[in-house]
Design brief:
Elements lengths: L2 E2 L11 H10 L5 H22 L3 E4 L7 H9 L11 H10 L9 E3 L6 E3 L2 E2 L10 H12 L3 E7 L1 H7 L1 E2 L9 H16 L5 E6 L9 H15 L5 E6 L6 H7 L6 E5 L10 H7 L2 E7 L9 H12 L7 E5 L18 H5 L4 H17 L6 H19 L6 H8 L10 H12 L16 H11 L5 H22 L3 E2 L11 H4 L3 E4 L6 E4 L2 E3 L3 E7 L6 H9 L4 E7 L1 H6 L2 E2 L5 H21 L4 E5 L14 H16 L7 E5 L9 H7 L3 E4 L10 H5 L5 E4 L12 H12 L20 H23 L1
Parallel strand pairs: 1-12, 2-6, 5-7, 6-8, 8-9, 9-10, 10-11, 11-12, 13-18, 17-19, 18-20, 20-21, 21-22, 22-23
Antiparallel strand pairs: 3-4, 14-17, 15-16
Helix pairs in contact: 1-2, 8-9, 11-13, 17-18, 22-23, 23-24, 26-27
The protein binds glutamine and zinc ion (ZN).
Length: 758
């Protein structure tokens, strides 16, 4: 019997860890309470896996905040500003900052929505092993009678994802951290007669440079030789790792864990694996998405692999950690039973692994009654998914085959002339990104309305009053292009998903995003269409309150896709196209209703980028195509804006240009004009609104500093091309911060404008 999972979620199915941590952080409880809950959760999660029949169960996949942070602590890689602190105070200060030291940076874990803490290294560091967490968790697990597999993040991935404070090459530090890893492994080796160790090296799924490839062999020869009672499995996921696989097979490791769901090309490593006699940990149940597995197909794949590799040398498991999916379907009371039958969250995935493994190992005939029933349900659900009317919508499919508009009629050069005539905005026009502070009052109103505690009329009156105030303030502040403030939106994807056909929402489908933060992504299960206008009433209401231009706010298809669980029975690009057409209808309706500027946010455009360079052109092609489809109905005089939440455009500038928005707003406040330079370098023609102040902090920027920031931007781009706006939406800020900040921003624009027109 041989099944495994790469890792299990830890936040708790009722988000117990989140609430416990937050109570502790706010001083409502002490750390022993956190430890108590953490221990309870670990135990519960191990037992779930044991009861489901999983053979190799991870320890050290648990974390109070993040596994990369845990690894930094394990190595003693403590940035100077935190030295002197100890234990939990040290740990949470590194994660969240404290009164005197800013938190460490956080960034996305590969192409997932999970964020890790970026370790900060320095050539002056002296590393020292701290194996307590790992050893303790191992012992805890052993007491429960399970076979633990110790998870650690591998040294090469650790260095690839870290940064050096002197900006040097992190790999230069490999010689210093490798002895700590060896020491750790020899401590682990003492724990048992035989110990499985899973060393995660997801960095190996990227396009590795020759220098990186050359590090693999010496590193793993060393690690694999630490002790012969260790069974070292190198795990990669999210893509294939064929280049690294080849090298790893020539080292004395025990096996490789490969992702056959998101890295189908890994199949090309099978022959070499067979020759090397290594053990294969085959990741075949999708750890990143929530659809049921096609069990029969999975068994077929395993059988194919087994024509080359001995069955005894194949373990069956998840493609990656189940951290990226919610816990369990058992709390979903509102999802239709039909949709539910197509879904599989972490706990359900454990059983899928078990069934697949049983059939693969012993044949269908020997399956017990319980698993047979599960298999039948699985087969049935996969059949209904192929034909269910709620998934397959003829009208949508016909429209996709029809001759819809792919892009706007006029070229930018012509459009912008007409727009300047029609819209009459000054040079350095001022605007915002869309949302204004989400007050307690509007949050409550939305909640009460959802629960049916207030009527539609009462709800609308509250939202309208907010819009009235928001418009009045913007007029008073002197902004040029106004917004309605987005008070009716809880979230920029959820708001649209709730009104589109083909989307479902869970009650408890939480997934950890970072630390104690969780998100509940919508599920796109079927063909997407828009039954009726989604934003027109609110935007036209706002427009009726002012003579100035109100910008209509929409979320773009790629962002909706990247922040949802997307159906896997058709290509992502097809789903994206369907969403694009639905948004195009909204653009068209807004325009009809007299809205002159429409912004289509693509906040998550960049995070959808594939991990392999060879796959990027394909992604860019359809992502650009779909942005253009959704703004295609806009006439020349209707100005299209887009917004992206970052500033690193060097690699993607040509793609951004190809999206052909008339105006793009981006985040630049924290980096001066550095990141704008690439726009000038490529001769970018469309207008640009680089953020002139950072909205992530409560600080109120002064007129003077924003004048300086705008002047800096003018060193890079001509005044006729620039807009003035904050970095991002203002929904997380308070009115007391937003009001003076925006007034100062308008003032600053005015000063620079006057200076440059005299
Ligand atoms: N229009 C959205 C807002 O202002 C954009 C949010 C975002 O970029 N993440 O909130
Ligand atoms: Zn943003």
């Amino acid at each position: 019997m041989a099944s495994f999972v790469i890792g299990f979620p830890r936040i708790g199915e009722k988000r117990e860890l989140k609430f416990t941590l937050e109570n502790y952080w706010s001083g409502k409880s002490d750390f022993s309470e956190v430890e108590r809950v953490a221990k309870k959760l670990r135990k519960r999660h191990w037992l779930y896996q044991k009861e489901a029949g999983i053979d190799l169960i991870s320890v050290n996949d648990f974390s109070l905040y993040d596994n990369m942070l845990d690894t930094a602590i394990m190595l003693g890689a403590i940035p100077k500003r935190f030295q002197g602190l100890q234990d939990e105070e040290l740990y949470f200060s590194m994660a969240r900052g404290n009164d005197t030291a800013v938190a460490m940076e956080m960034t996305k874990w590969f192409n997932t929505n999970y964020h890790y803490i970026v370790p900060e290294l320095s050539p002056q560091d002296t590393y020292k092993l701290n194996a307590n967490k790992i050893i303790n968790e191992y012992k805890e697990a052993k007491e429960l009678g399970i076979t633990p597999k110790v998870n650690i993040i591998g040294p090469i991935t650790f260095l690839a994802l870290s940064k050096r404070i002197d900006r040097g090459d992190t790999y230069e530090l490999l010689g210093k951290i490798l002895p700590i890893y060896e020491e750790l492994l020899s401590e682990i080796a003492k724990l048992d007669d035989e110990v499985f160790v899973q060393i995660d090296e997801p960095h190996f799924v990227r396009d590795l440079e020759a220098k990186e490839l050359s590090l693999i062999k010496p590193t793993y020869e060393k690690l694999a030789k630490v002790s012969n009672n260790l069974k070292i499995i190198v795990a990669t996921y999210f893509e294939h790792s064929n280049e690294a696989n080849k090298i790893l097979l020539s080292t004395p490791i025990y096996g490789l864990a490969l992702d056959f769901v998101h890295g189908k090309e890994n199949i090309n490593s099978i022959e070499a694996m067979a020759k090397s006699e290594k053990v294969l940990f085959a990741g075949i149940v999708d750890g990143r998405n929530i659809w049921i597995n096609d069990i029969k197909k999975s068994v077929e794949l395993l059988n194919e692999i087994a024509t080359k590799i001995d069955k005894e040398k194949i373990y069956v498991g998840s493609s990656c950690s189940l951290l990226h999916v919610p816990y369990s379907l058992e709390y979903e009371e509102k999802l239709s039973s039909e949709i539910k039958s197509w879904l599989s969250f972490a706990k359900e995935k454990l059983l899928e692994i078990k069934i697949i493994e049983e059939i693969f190992r012993n044949g269908l005939e020997n399956l017990n009654d319980e698993l047979t029933a599960l298999l039948e349900a699985n087969t049935q659900a996969n059949i209904t998914r192929k034909s269910a009317p709620i998934i397959h919508d003829k009208t949508v499919q016909e429209r996709l085959k029809s001759n819809f508009k792919l892009e706007r009629e006029d070229k930018f050069e012509e459009r912008i002339k007409i727009q300047h005539q029609m819209l009459q905005y000054p040079i350095l026009p001022t605007t915002t990104i869309g949302s204004f502070p989400q007050t307690q009052e509007i949050r409550k109103a939305r909640r009460d309305f959802k629960k049916g505690e207030i009527s539609k009329e009462e709800y609308e009156a509250i939202i309208k009053a907010y819009i009235d105030d928001c418009i009045a303030f913007q007029e008073e502040a002197g902004l040029d292009v106004l917004v309605h403030g987005e008070p009716e939106r809880n979230d920029m994807v959820e708001y649209f998903g709730e009104q589109l056909k083909g989307f479902a929402f869970t009650q408890n489908g939480w997934v950890q995003s970072y630390g104690s933060r969780c998100v509940k992504p919508p599920i796109i299960y079927g063909d997407v269409s828009r039954p009726k206008a989604m934003t027109v009433d609110w935007i036209t209401y706002a427009q009726s309150k002012t003579k100035k231009i109100v910008k209509g706010m929409l979320t773009g298809p790629v962002t909706i896709l990247n922040w949802s669980f997307v159906r896997d029975d058709i290509e992502r690009s097809e789903v994206s196209k369907q969403i694009a057409l639905a948004i195009a209808d909204e653009v068209s309706d807004l325009q009809e209703a007299g809205i002159k500027i429409i912004q289509v946010d693509e906040a998550a455009f960049k995070e959808g980028y594939p991990l392999r360079k060879s796959k990027i052109p394909e992604y860019e092609k359809w992502a650009v195509r779909d942005f253009k489809i959704c703004v295609a109905p806009a006439k020349a005089q209707t100005q299209i804006h887009t917004h992206m939440c970052y500033s690193e455009f060097n690699d993607i500038i040509k793609t951004i240009e190809a999206m052909d928005a008339d105006v793009i707003s981006i985040e630049t406040a924290r980096s001066g004009n550095e990141l704008l330079k690439v726009f000038a370098k490529v001769g970018y023609k469309q207008e640009v609104g680089p953020g002139v102040y950072d909205i992530h902090s409560p600080r109120i920027p002064s007129v003077q500093e924003m004048v300086e920031q705008i002047e800096k931007l003018l060193e890079v781009l001509p005044i006729t091309q620039l807009w003035v706006n904050p970095d991002c939406g203002l929904k997380t800020r308070k009115w007391e911060e937003v009001k003076p900040s925006l007034k100062n921003m308008v003032q600053a624009a005015k000063i620079v404008r006057e200076r440059h027109t005299i």
